[in-house]
Amino acid sequence: xxxxxxxxxxxxxxxxxxxxxxxxxxxxxxxxxxxxxxxxxxxxxxxxxxxxxxxxxxxxxxxxxxxxxxxxxxxxxxxxxxxxxxxxxxxxxxxxxxxxxxxxxxxxxxxxxxxxxxxxxxxxxxxxxxxxxxxxxxxxxxxxxxxxxxxxxxxxxxxxxxxxxxxxxxxxxxxxxxxxxxxxxxxxxxxxxxxxxxxxxxxxxxxxxxxxxxxxxxxxxxxxxxxxxxxxxxxxxxxxxxxx
Length: 244
Ligand SMILES: Nc1ncnc2c1ncn2[C@@H]1O[C@H](COP(=O)(O)OP(=O)(O)OP(=O)(O)O)[C@@H](O)[C@H]1O
Known about the structure:
GO terms for molecular function: ATP binding. The protein has helices spanning 44-51, 74-81, 99-109, 114-127, 143-155, 173-190, 201-207, 235-243, and strands spanning 2-12, 17-28, 33-38, 59-64, 67-68, 84-87, 161-165, 193-198, 210-215, 218-224. The protein is of the alpha/beta class. It has a domain at 93-158. Strands 6-7-8-3-9-10 form a 6-stranded mixed β-sheet, with helices on both faces.
């Protein structure tokens, strides 16, 4: 479904250059939950954000369902993005819109008619078990509920792929579990492919089929996850699995 091939990315700030990604490659199969793990600054978020071109890579290719995204122009890329949902650590909900209106937003942008939007918003809120909060405002929701609204919004337009950037990092341990269960449920019910950037090994153990360990902008090691078990072969991988 996704092939990331030899991606590099440098950030240029006033007096500094940061080589955030150096020749990164990995493949994600349809229906898979794929983790990107590593310490802060290792390049996980940048790698995730190059997949939908929120960050444009300096070199390399991203293939999505066989299409080379590097070759797409802006309007073609807008259509591709509609097939990729994204969720963030801090939810990114619009405070002045109700839960239902937040979920409706991507459908309005995609030009859906009002009746279809109303029906789809109800379906999505049912999928994340939040139908009873459709008229609430984000300020009146818990962190877990906010993230579930963000998930409902991200899946509204029937994306094939969900990009999740540290989706549990701002949540307490119990609520982290609630969000992981919600994502696993959607992965199974909708065959939704999920790529998740996280620094929490618990998240990887509970949800991922495979994981790439990032270190200093490179992929250090890629592992299968079987029943929550990971067996890194490198010393760094072993230390990370022990410590995180
Ligand atoms: N917009 C930016 N401008 C300049 N440097 C950036 C920018 N975004 C990220 N960086 C730098 O690029 C490197 C990789 O950052 P990235 O956010 O991808 O890492 P990460 O593994 O996701 O870390 P974290 O878990 O802290 O989010 C870091 O050194 C970071 O400081």
